[in-house]
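3.2 Worked example (two chains)
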Amino acid sequence: MYDLTGFQRDLLYVIAGLDEPHGLAIKEELEEYYEKEIHHGRLYPNLDTLVEKGLVDKGQRDRRTNYYTLTRRGRREIKARKDWEADYIDIKYDGISA
């Protein structure tokens, strides 16, 4: 995960949180989070990079629609990142639990 961009990590998290999402569903989730449009020219090359790195599998739903799922390695990487973050981030801020 250390060599991924923040955008690529966000892609992994969205894929992990949805059931076999297609590109448009991923795009919509990220647009809601970022509060701005995500262009196809940014989305799909980054998804392809995650596939090439073995973190995401790409399947075909029909001739026009692909779906994405995390690989076992992708799930391990997310868990490792979460564990690493937990070493540095205390969930309590000003006495408020998240």
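3.2.1 Second chain
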Amino acid sequence: MAETKKEANAAFDLFVEIYGAKYEKAVAKLVKDRDELLAFYDFPAEHWKHIRTTNPIESVFATVRNRTRKTKGCLNRKTALAMVFRLMKSAKKKWRKINGPNRLPDVIQGIEFKDGIKQLQTAA
């Protein structure tokens, strides 16, 4: 939850120092994926909340998982796909809109962000 990538790297290094000896394999995996874990700092700050969470994926599939467990015995491939499609379409109605939708064109155009702040391009 650091404000800048520099602060996040410092906190990451401290975490590795504290827990590296006790949880060697887990820390090694985190260190290996460090760049991916901190990649959200290269996006608009308004989008960080959405990038950090996996809840939208988990909540959609929780709905599907609960329903398919109850109807376990009476599904073939075709009806299962139809049911999953309808459940996801229904779950879509409850999804929250993205914060900062006005920043999406900048992201799509590949404009650089540093610590969530748009970087101005200088003409050469």
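3.3 Remarks
The first helix runs from residue 5 to 19.
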